[in-house]
Structure formats: C-alpha cells, structure tokens
Amino acid sequence: xxxxxxxxxxIIGLLAPFVVYPVFMMKLLCFALFACAFNLLLGYxxxxxxxxxxxxxxxxxxxxxxxxxxxxxxxxxxxxxxxxAALLGYLVGSLAIRRQGIYFAMVTLALAxxxxxxxxxxxxxGGEDGLQGIPRGKLFGLIDLGHVYTVGGNPLGLNLYYFVxxxxxxxxxxxxxxxxxxxxxxxxxxxxxxxxxxxLGYKVERFKLTAFVISAxxxxxxxxxxxxxxxxxxxxxVSWHTSGEVVLMTLLGGVGTVLGPLVGAFTVVTLQSxxxxxxxxxxxxxxxxxxxxxxxxxxxxxxxxxxxxKRSL
Amino acid sequence: xxxxxxxxxxxxxxxxNNGVFYAILSLGLAVIFGxxxxxxxxxxxxxMLGAYVALLGFxxxxxxxxxxxxxxxxxxxxxxxxxxxxxxxxxxxRTMLRRLYKFDHLYGLLLTFGLALxxxxxxxxxxxxxxxxxxxxxxxxxxxxxxxxxxFPKYRLWVIAISxxxxxxxxxxxxxxxxxxxxxxxxxxxxxxKAFGVNVPLMITLTYGxxxxxAAFAGVLAAPIYSxxxxxxxxxIITVFAVVVIGGMGSIMGSIVTGLLLGIVEGLTKVVYAxxxxxxxxxIMVVVLLVKPAGLFGRES
Amino acid sequence: xxxxxxxxxxxxxxLALTGGMAGAANTGISDGxxxxxxxxxxxxxxxxxxxxxxxxxxEMAVKDFGGKVLGKPIQVIGADHQNKADIASxxxxxxxxxxxxxxxxxxLNSGCALAVQKLASDKKRITMNTGxxxxxxxxxxxxxxxxxxxxxxxxxxxxxxxxxVPSGGKSWFFLTADYAFGHSxxxxxTKFVTKLGGKVVGSxxxxxxxxxxxxYLLQAQSSGAxxxxxxxxxxxxxxxxxxAREFGIDKKGQKxxxxxxxxxxxxxxxxxxxxxxxxxxxxxxxxxNATRDFAKRYFAIHKAMPTMDQAGAYSATMNYLKAIKAAGxxxxxxxxxxxxxxxxxxxxxxxxxIRADGRMVHDMYLMEVKKPSESKGEWDLLKIVKTVPADQAxxxxxxxxxxxxxx
Lengths: 313, 301, 407
Description:
The structure holds 3 protein chains of 3 kinds.
Chain A: H1 3-19, H2 22-45, H3 53-69, H4 74-96, H5 101-121, E1 131-132, E2 138-139, E3 143-144, E4 149-151, E5 154-156, H6 158-179, H7 182-192, H8 194-199, H9 204-230, E6 232-233, H10 240-253, H11 260-274, H12 281-296, H13 300-309
Antiparallel strand pairs in A: 1-6, 2-3, 4-5
Helix pairs in contact in A: 2-6, 2-9, 2-10, 2-11, 3-4, 3-5, 3-9, 4-5, 4-9, 6-9, 7-9, 10-11, 10-13
Chain B: H1 5-36, H2 43-59, H3 61-64, H4 74-95, H5 106-126, E1 144-146, E2 151-153, H6 154-176, H7 178-188, H8 190-195, H9 200-222, H10 232-247, H11 252-272, H12 280-291
Antiparallel strand pairs in B: 1-2
Helix pairs in contact in B: 1-6, 1-9, 1-10, 1-11, 2-4, 2-5, 2-9, 2-10, 4-9, 6-7, 10-11, 10-12
Chain C: H1 2-16, E1 34-40, H2 51-65, E2 68-69, E3 72-80, H3 85-99, E4 103-106, H4 110-122, E5 126-129, E6 146-148, H5 153-164, E7 171-177, H6 180-195, E8 199-206, H7 214-223, E9 227-231, H8 234-246, E10 255-258, H9 263-269, H10 271-274, E11 278-281, H11 289-302, H12 308-327, H13 332-341, E12 343-344, E13 352-354, E14 360-361, E15 364-369, E16 382-388, H14 390-393
Parallel strand pairs in C: 1-3, 1-4, 4-5, 5-6, 7-8, 7-9, 9-10
Antiparallel strand pairs in C: 2-3, 11-15, 12-13, 13-14, 15-16
Helix pairs in contact in C: 2-12, 3-4, 5-6, 8-9, 12-13
C-alpha cells in the first residue's frame, strides 16, 4: 500500500476530533484496534477466537484498578493492563491451540466465560456495577489527560484524544510489522495449509501461540484505552456479546485485510450509536448484517474492494 | 447448611431435571455437527422459539383464527412446535446453510450466530423480557409425588422420563438401524454414500430439521417450568456448548451422558457454593481439555 | 448518519467562530431550550416496567406543563442504556457535551444510575432517578445534583419487614441475586428483621437471570425458615415464585416475600400464582381519583398502566419544570436549590420533600396481591394494605453517610 494513503489517514486521524465528537472518535479507535488485533489471529493465522472479549475486558479492569486504586499514571496503567492481557493470552492460548477450527472457537468461548465469572466475582471489579469513576490522570505525571479545551464553544478533550490516537497508531504499526515480517509469512503458511507448514519443519504450535499472545496483548491495550476514555470498566467488555461483535467487525470489513477491521469497526460502532434509539431492533439489524455478510460477501467491504482493484489492501 | 444424604439425593434429582435439558439440546447439536460439521449457534434461539410456539398456540392462535375458545393444548404443542421449528430449520438449511458447505465450517457458526441474534431480537421486541407464564400444563401432571426423600413435582418427573426416552430413542436410531448407518456413513464419506444412490442433500436437510426440532421439543417441555422469555435460549446455549465440548463433539452418546452428568454436578454445586453454579461446567471443560483434548467420548482425530 | 454530520457541521462552524460562549449566563434558559433526556432500559429485562413507558410519562408531563418554560421550548429525547453502565455513561456524556441536555431521568439499574449520576454531577447536570434501587445513590455516592425520586432498598426492606415480622414471620431465609442490588436489599431487610426481634437463618446467592430456582428453594425449605425473602427482581423473582408454587412450598407453612415487585411482574405471574403476596411500592395507579385520572390518560397512550417508575418520571419532570419556572433560570444550582426547598405534592408523591442528600421522601405503600375473585379487570391487581408516612419509610437523614448532609 502506498505512502500517500497512510499519510492521509494519519492527517484525518489528527483532525478528526475537531469534526467528530472526540469521545465517539476515541471509541472508534479502541474498537478498531481491538478488531485489528483480532484480525491478526483470524485473518493471518486462521484461528477464530470466540472469546477475545476476555482480553479486551480484563485489561480494562486491570488498567482501571491500577489507575484508580493504586494511583499509577495512565501510561503505566495501560502497560499493566496490556501485560496482563498478554499473560492471560498465554494461558488461554496454550489450552486452546491444542484444538483446531470449530473446537478452538468453542474452547476460547468457554475460557472467556470463566474470565467473565471472575470479573463478576472478584472484589475489585464492582460486579454488576462495574469499576466506575476511573480517573484519567496525568500522563507521565505531567500532562493532564482530563483537560478539556473549549474550541468554538465545544468542549474537546484533546490531550486524551491524541494520547489514544498515538497508542492506536503504535498498536496498528505493531500489527502491520508482524504481518509483513518473516514471522507473519509463516503464520500465513499455517493458515493456508497447516500440515505443510509442519512438514516444512515449523513448530506450528509455537507460532500459533505467539500470534495468540500478540493478538491478546493488543486487544488488551484496546480495552485499557477504553477504560480511560469511558472512565469505566464493565461486564459488557468481557461478555461473549463483545466477542461476537469483534468477529462481526472483522468479517464486515474484510478478514485478512489490513484496513478491513478498521472499516468494519467504524461501521459497526457508528451503526450502534445511530441506531441506539430503536431499542432491540438493533440486535435484529446486527444479526441481519451478519447473515448477509456470511452469505453474500465473505470478503467484507475492503476484501471485495481489493478483489475489484486486484490488489491487497 | 448441613449436607445430608437427603439433600444430596434431592439435589441429584433436580440436577437430573436440568441435565435432561442439556442432554436433549446437546444431542441436537451433536446430530447436526456430526453430519453438517456446523456448530449451530441458533440452537438456543430455536429452543426459545419452540416454547413460544406452545405459548402462542395456547393464548393467541384461537383469536387469530377467529375462534377465541380454541387453545392449542400441551400435548398437541409437544408435537406441533417441533414440526413448526423443524420446518423452519429445513428452510434455513435449504436457503442459507447449503450455500456455505464449500467454505470453511466457521462460516456456518457465524451464520447461525446472526440468525440467533435476529430471532432473539424480534421476540424481545414483541414480548415481555422477564417472561410470560405458560398455563397449559395438563391437569394430570399437576401436584407432586413423594419420592421418600423429597416431594417431587409430577411434571418434572414426566420431563425426565420423556426426555430420556427421546434421547435414547435417537441414539438407537442412529447407532442401531439402517437409516442410522446411512447417516453415519454420510458423516464419514458423503461422496461414497451418494454413489450408493442415497439422497445425501435430503438427508442433510432432514438431519438439520430433526436437530432443531429436538431443541423446540425441549422448549415446550421447559415452558411450564420456567417463564417463556426471549432470552431463555441465549442463557442456555453457551452452557450447552461447553457440554458438547466436554462430551466430545459429534458423539451422540457422549452428549447425552455428559448432559445428564453435568446437570447433576451443577445441581450439587448449588448446595456447596451457589454463585459458581453457572461456571463450574466451564471449569470442568478446562480440566477435560487438559486431560483428554477430544472430550470424554470423542475420538482423537 | 445525519446526527454525525450535524455534529461535524456544528464543530466546524464552532471552529470558525473562535472563542465561543464559555460560561453561560445564570439567568433565563441557557441555550434557548430545556432538554430532558430519558435514559433507561428500553429493550432488556426492565423495559416493561420502565422503558418507552417512562419516556411516554415524561412527554406527558411536558405537554401538561404547556410545552414551554420561561417562554422557551422543552424537548424530550430518549435512549436505551441496555442495562450496561458503559453505554449509559457514554450516552449521558454525549448528551451533555453535544446535545446540551439539562436533566436526565429514568436510569433504571443501579450500575447505570451510579455511573450517570457521578458523570452528570461532574458536569453540573441534574439527574432525577426514578428507576434504580440502590441506597448508595444518596449515601456514599451522593452528589449535589443527584435526586433519587421513587424508592430505594432501605424503604423496601423496612416497610416489608415491619409488616411481616410482627405478624409472625420471625425467621427468614434469603434468596439473593448475586450483585450489588441484591446484596443491598438483603442487608437492609436483615437489619430490620433483626431489629424487630426476628432472625435470619440463612441465605443463598444465586447468579443473575437464573432459570431454575428449585435447588435454592429446597435449601430454603430445609432451613425451616417461616419466610423466604426474595432479594432479587424481575425475571428472577417471577421464576422463584412460580417454582415455589410448583414444589408446594407455600402449602407447608412457609411464606414467600418478594422485596421488589412491580405491577408488571404480577401481571406476568398471574393472580392465581401471586395472590396474597405482600410487598412495598411507591405508587399504585388505583389509589385515589388523582392516580386513576393520571393512569387513565397514560393508558390511552401507552396501553398499559403506569408502574411506580413511570409515574415517578412524570412527577419528577413536572416538578423539575416547576422549579425552573420558580427559579427563573435553568441553571442547575438555582434549580436544585428550588427543588430542595419546595414541597413535592401531586398525584404521585404525597408529603414529598427532597432532602439535602438528594433523597425524595414520600409516602410508601404496603401492597397485597388480590385473589382472582377480587379482581375486576386486567389491571385490577393489588390493594393497599397500609400507608407508611414519608418520615417513617425512608432512611433518616441522621443515618445518611452522604457528605452533603451537615451534622
């Protein structure tokens, strides 16, 4: 993909908070990173995890806890959440990669349910109420992330936005590098034909596990960011509905494309926000999109576009 | 709380009662998975649909047909709801699932996930989420029986009995009859079976229909015990998935026995530490996967 | 998408006009319109007792008020928080930042309520909570702009315990929903049961949305308690009661007491199953002519009788608008000062008063479910057994741990 597109995207990202409501924009970025991390697994390794909310949600709890109750600065909180998600990813991954395909999906789903239970019962999570009132704190102890600038009568939390945007870019860059590294090539080889990769002498399990841990860690980073943006970590973040949502985002945007999850996340989050007044019809609409997507365009928006343009996006 | 033999026995009975629902649902999943290789995420929604067919048949069908005094009774619902839902299953298989067989099996999971959301969303819109009562329990099943260690409602005994009958009947047909042998052969090698002149696509369609009809049957059985609500299936399906994984996916006997056992384990957990009752099954699943990755009754591939 | 574009357009326009109008004036209506947001469960387990019906009530109040206050229009917007605290707080934040919403009401579900009350108060916006139960809203987490309008776990526990214990229900066993609301309800009720000379012989905590209660009921049965207290809500309460009947628990002298029950739950259970049960409520549509009159008008629009949450939302909105009119401004501080000094008296609240901690105290009622033979219509479900005066129903200010209460 050429440089101009990247530069344009970054400029759009930098200007966005002046045009779109910043909190909404930050939510988009969090879910986009989450979907990109998920895509690393589904799109580039061929593993469908149906329990990715476990990493997203647990990291958001850990970050919230560290920042709120241990008084850590936000960057350390996010680091802590991300590391925790990576560790959890290692545990879940070690168990789950023993099975393949559908089994893998079921195992991740069930393990995520255990994480859900812990989130419900652990003393610091606030149970059904969630972990509320997480302070945004001072970045490196210096920059107040809660600061609100008034631009043209509208309150804009620009400090937080640019922090989140920077983290998003970092996460996205890591994923991009991973995909295009020799390591990423092996992952694709596993996706295409696992027995062949084995016969070529690759330790397939180790590759899968590494990919799983990276994906879990970045999903965790997205969750950690979300807890600072909304100042709240809740059971929604660890529930299987969230796991389903991230699958939808990736599928809709285009599995195995670099930009697909981004487009998918933007579409789903925007839909949810625009349709929040129609009540439970939103479930029907999302379900309908799922069905149409699976039946008619399995390559997603970006995937179909890439096929039209005959190049990879 | 003292744990006496009496309480244990009572909890085992109640656990068995829940276990038969797990068994019948995971059996349906196993039958479908065996032949179609699809994890039917819509199973919970179709279970809920079965309960609603019974409920609406009792309360709304008469007025709809212009016969306000007509109520579809329980026994009729027990036959008709699975037929209606089974027919819907046939339509789903013919129009949607069929298109996906040539792709990765994961698409089947995703499609049925979408269908589950649609069905559940529609019902949430029109019905009370906290549930509606189903008042058509037959007179003969009212009251309770003295089992010596507890008073057990007759209706629940009936549920246990009929469910076991249906489960083992299904097992018998698949494992011991000629029809079943076609099915099993179709699972192993569809091309070969086709060469013998068996209509494999029809077999697949009917298998899916039967699998979801089982779910609807369980839904009707559940209606008089629990409130009929749009989310009754969603709460159940994840647990049933775990049952299927523990039993070994696709194993008919495995799903039945595991369903019953886990119902009992769950029941006993409610006495020891109630809040964990909804999670204990997942813990067992982790242990089973560590020790025997293919599940208790599954074959290593 | 329209919304998104209009936000975009607005922001761009705002950018062009540098400076802007930071620090709005303290008199009159700040931005030319009074906006009331109804944020509640519109699709989930509580949607029948709150949901769209709450928005209908708020819209009725606005219409009855004349649609305008201090010459400026009043607008009502609604959204579904899906019982998720994160959605609730995101929506509230967006409403306050972008839509300039002045007051938020509804807020069923304690988790959502706590999140929104804190957020709104940080941004100096008023919340009038008609749905949530937790006493925390007016204790540890109280705020200068948060009002808890209809009921709370303290009042529910107290009124019910005071009715049940003296009439022979001395020993209790609790079935408690295992989350903050259930715990709080159990704790508050336990306090009064023991104070009145009763005792709690045990309790079991069940996960939220349990389908099968038989196991717990059996434990309750073998505990030998006279009363089985249901510290849960909605579908859980309904299932527990139904299954208790199935196992014939009531026939053996044990009595079920639901601690939080709404009219809609009784409808869902049916009178045959629910008859004779007693519980506490902040409102019943068939209490007197004024309530019947309101209920009739409400029914014409919503096709269901108002629950205490819905009627409360009407009353809250009405009094909020009255306070704006009296204060001559929609400035939150001025309006709160008025609200806390005026008497709240209408068809909903008898002897109502908003205290320093934000608790609106008013008469509460001990209800009893009618027998099928007593019921004369679809909604003729309950009768009022006892009226508990405002000052006896709620937690006294002296016990409140709210930092706003001067001691």
